[in-house]
Amino acid sequence: xxxxxxxGLGGYLLGAVPFGIVIARLFGxxxxxxIGSGNIGATNVxxxxxxxxxxxxxxxxxGKGAIAVGLTFLLTPEPQAAxxxxxxxxxxxIGHNFPIWLKFKGGKGVATTLGVLLATAWPVGLAxxxxxxxxxxxxxxxxxxxxxxxxxxxxYAWYFATPQHAILAGLLAVLAWARxxxxxxxxxxxxxxxxxxxxxx
Length: 201
Ligand code: G3P
What we know:
This protein is mainly α. The protein has helices spanning 2-15, 19-26, 42-46, 51-75, 78-97, 110-120, 122-139, 142-160, 163-179, 181-189.
């Protein structure tokens, strides 16, 4: 139990680093929470018009999920490692979505979830990323791409990995859908902002 608790705590603290806010501030783009959707993720950084800052946010937010899993793999003794990695990944996304540093008001966890999936079972991560890219290419909505990619992730995990991976992917998908409730409403009303558009919603 102690090993899982430590992996979870480490994952949470890593996940709680709000890279979008840090990058936006470093690049002089202002407070992300006052821009676009107000979300702290890469999609919203892109609405400032700075593509480099957006890509950097995407890499760091997914990287922190992958690193939480990777560090747990390195630090955990063998029999517990597999489960501890799943726990660290889950808590990294919780950290991103509910960061203690931002009074628990964080992001939607898409990039971090993709990083966690890549690090826990790379074919699952690749399949989810491919689904995101294909959906985004067709419909041009970041939120819709995330909703579809993450809804498919448990099936990918079931097929490419283990039932435990599928459970993790299922939990993360439910969480992401819940965090996207405003996006879902905007999508249904036809009011969601397309990728790269700066319009405030
Ligand atoms: O990754 C979050 C994305 O799916 C939606 O972001 O800023 O449009 O709410 P945003």
